[in-house]
Amino acid sequence: MNEGFHAVDAAGMLDAGRRFAENLQSGDVVALDGDLGAGKTQFCKGLAAGLGSEDAVTSPTFSLVQEYRSGRLPLHHFDWYRLETSDEVLRLGWDDYLDEPGIVVVEWASKFPELLPRGSYCMSFEILADSSRRVAVSRT
Ligand SMILES: Nc1ncnc2c1ncn2[C@@H]1O[C@H](COP(=O)(O)OP(=O)(O)OP(=O)(O)O)[C@@H](O)[C@H]1O
Ligand SMILES: [Mg+2]
């Protein structure tokens, strides 16, 4: 899990998110990148489930940020796909989210790498020919 993992199907990705959530601590930032439809939102569903949240996780592509508060830690779920400037992220209250207790997870995080704090987990999602997914994990 430290260097990456392979998910054969959507259920496997959910499971990977669930397991990854076990090690997360308040203040952690998880930055997700990679192909359209590669499973970033699916992974976030696993994170929420792993934190014990019973809220339904949906893609925040239109709402831009969603908060799940029923788990052991709050989960703040961003999607930067539709944002054009880092100013827009800041106006959503980015700095306040970073200061709050809980986990911040961001889809399309490499759009504004300058906003990610040092120590963020960086996960790069790739769709393989057999439609399984390869995810590389590193820390900034
Ligand atoms: N191995 C796999 N891992 C994850 N998802 C898979 C896998 N195989 C098929 N899928 C399917 O791929 C889709 C992944 O969609 P998801 O919304 O999680 O991607 P995304 O990376 O968030 O896309 P976007 O870039 O649009 O935000 C789901 O419909 C899921 O069922
Ligand atoms: Mg998504």
State the main characteristics.
binds magnesium ion, globular, single chain, 7-stranded mixed β-sheet, binds adenosine-5'-triphosphate, alpha/beta, Rossmann fold, 4 helices, 140 residues
List the topology elements.
Blueprint: E1 4-7, H1 10-22, E2 29-34, H2 40-50, E3 65-68, E4 75-79, H3 86-91, H4 94-99, E5 103-107, E6 121-127, E7 133-139
Parallel strand pairs: 2-5, 2-6, 4-5
Antiparallel strand pairs: 1-7, 3-4, 6-7
The structure holds adenosine-5'-triphosphate and magnesium ion (MG).
Adenosine-5'-triphosphate binds at residues 7-10, 12-13, 36-42, 59, 107, 125, 131-133.
Written description of the protein model:
The protein is of the alpha/beta class. The chain has a single domain (4-139), classed as P-loop containing nucleotide triphosphate hydrolases (Rossmann fold). It contains four helices and seven strands; from the N terminus they run βαβαββααβββ. Strands 1-7-6-2-5-4-3 form a seven-stranded mixed beta sheet. Strand 6 (121-127) and strand 7 (133-139) form a beta hairpin. The chain is globular and about 40 Å long. Magnesium ion binds at residues 40-41, 59, 79, 107.
Kindly summarize this structure in a few lines.
With 140 residues, the chain is of the alpha/beta class. Helices cover 26% and strands 27% of the residues.
Strand content: 25-35%
Biggest sheet layout: 7 strands, mixed
Number of helices: 4
User: What is the strand arrangement across the widest sheet?
Assistant: 1-7-6-2-5-4-3
Compute the number of strand runs. 7
